[in-house]
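Re-running Isopenicillin-N N-acyltransferase like protein to confirm reproducibility after the cluster update. Everything else is unchanged from the original entry.
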Amino acid sequence: MKKLNLRGSASEIGRQHGEQGKDEIHVSLSTYERLFYDYQGIDWNTVKERAKIHIRAIESFDESLLEEMQGVADGAGLVFEDILALNARSEIALTGNAHTSFSDGCTSFSTCSPLTEDTIIGQNWDWKGTQKDSLLMLNIEREDRPNILMITEGGIIGKIGCNENALGVGLNALHSTKKTDGVPIHLGLRSILDSSSLHEAMGKIQEGQMASAANFMIGYSEGKHRGLAFHVEVSPFGIAITNEEASHGVHTNHICSQEIQMKVGEGNNLRYSDSEIRKRRAEQLIQQAITNQTKITDETFREWLRDTFNAPNSINHYVNEQAPVHRRMETVFGIVMNLTTNDIYVCDGMPAHQPFEKFSVSTGGKENVHQR
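Result of re-run:
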């Protein structure tokens, strides 16, 4: 996984992303151009036209996102619509007919006080194996917004990571039958990472600004025993926090909120053979630790992400040859974020077979907002 250190204005950060991550961006373009054509019968020009309906909403939401995407396009020698389409790929891929649409799979865990003194979130990201070669770790430093450490696909400016203000976010893709021309969910993820506080982050997603449904796992820490972590299903029609226990939660790839499900429609035709099993196994792992009075730490999370129960449809996901071709996926990377200690562990590949490497968010010489 290539690591890029990006600094400056939105346009400058985008240009550096485009120049230094050009190869990874072209992998993303190749993957999605092929997927959209093979499974939805639409060519890339049609994809780009569909993505353009989101421009007005993005401009009203945060114009700097458009500036950064234009910078990525300039740096990579592409047109703006290519990068816009990558950032709106979920709205094009995850809505409509479940038999022709496709989705990334993920299993996410979160814990906080009183179960754990530290606020910890972690997940596996399961997707097409070809996207392994598109992965980028972006270390973004700005003067006017928080510094960020984020794992993403080349060309996509918002995904999974955390910022210097101990605010982190993860993603579980959700397939639904309805969407709008609002803000693409990957740009919603970026808005979380651009936030300085939990209330600012929640304010950006609570009014139905997102164009489609997704689960955002959000964690925030102000020190030991001073943090929250929860799973927020976002949609064009509002949000719902789905973990019943304040101290822990899990999520996979089906809609849990009945209200949101009624409004957007459930489109995951593998819910009971894959997503539901992973969710219940994740809940079981947490409950086992609670029952056994096992101290839950960063390493506990890494062990959970290595779990192979019910393989291939396990938390550490393997390719399931019995699934429809467009739904065959595998764990591409794993990540654990201790937001209290600022320790981030990333596995480039399957956690059951590859090690985790430790990172931290740079403060770029700025003082941390919260004292640890």
